[in-house]
Fold this sequence. Notes:
Layout lengths: L2 H8 L3 E7 L7 H12 L2 E6 L2 H4 L8 E4 L5 E4 L3 E6 L6 E6 L5 H14 L4 E10 L9 E4 L3 H7 L12 H11 L4 E9 H4 L5 H15 L8 H17 L2 H17 L6 H13 L10
Parallel strand pairs: 1-6, 1-7, 7-9
Antiparallel strand pairs: 2-5, 3-4, 5-6, 8-9
Helix pairs in contact: 1-5, 2-8, 4-6, 8-9
Amino acid sequence: MEESTTQQAFGPRIAVAAFDGWNDAGEAASGVVTALRAAQPHELVAAVDPELFFDYQYTRPALRLDGEGRRVVDWPEATLHRPQAPEGFWTLSGVEPARAWRSFTSEFVDALLAEDVTGLITIGAMMSDVPHTRPIAVHTSTDNALLRNQLELERSRYEGPTGILGVLSAAAEDAGIPTATMWASVPHYVAGTTPSPKATLALVERLGDLTAREVDPGTLPTEAAAWEATVDIAAADDDEMSDYIRQLEEARDAWDSPEASGDAIAQAFERYLRDDPGKGRPPA
């Protein structure tokens, strides 16, 4: 994708948003923000008051000991950070709020506007009936006509329950910030137990392609290879799991065949969003 096309579509100041919780299977989406902040220095520019937006019985604060052995309480948070390098990404991340979503998104959209952010990419990850042995699928869509035309993106036809990413995307578009959304499909049989660096790597690579920018993957390639090898070993000791993974591989290979249309793939993605993200399980 040519850099000039991306610059015209998103503009020069791009923010990336990902949140813990329902939107973050295998910690794949939040892992993108972690990778971006590890690649270059960022500075905090906005944060919400946790008392207004989080339910501490659902997302509890955590205790830790600081360098001097004193007990410290870490409260749930959501923050916006500015990159120090001009080619970097603004990063918006934290815990999905439990209440007052309109006020929450309003605060951050105001902060994005104050930072003169010209484009927003929201990132999510969902548990799906896909095998860990195949490339991680990343579905990219936008409601913005300019982005669809210039970057050849699809428009999502999904209707139904949404997470904070959907609300934030709609609010940013209403405020005049062009917005696109990326979702990774994470194998459900591992997404609920361990981080999935292979999915994070797929999102990082797609982010670089979408924005025509160099995005440093850091140690993700090595972590992704180790993760896949570990799951291979675990599956090899379980005949039932091995058979189940082979079924998923056959389904994925059919999905990737030339006969599979773009419309069929988009419809399957939207079914994933409508369904319970964790309903898929190996056969009993």
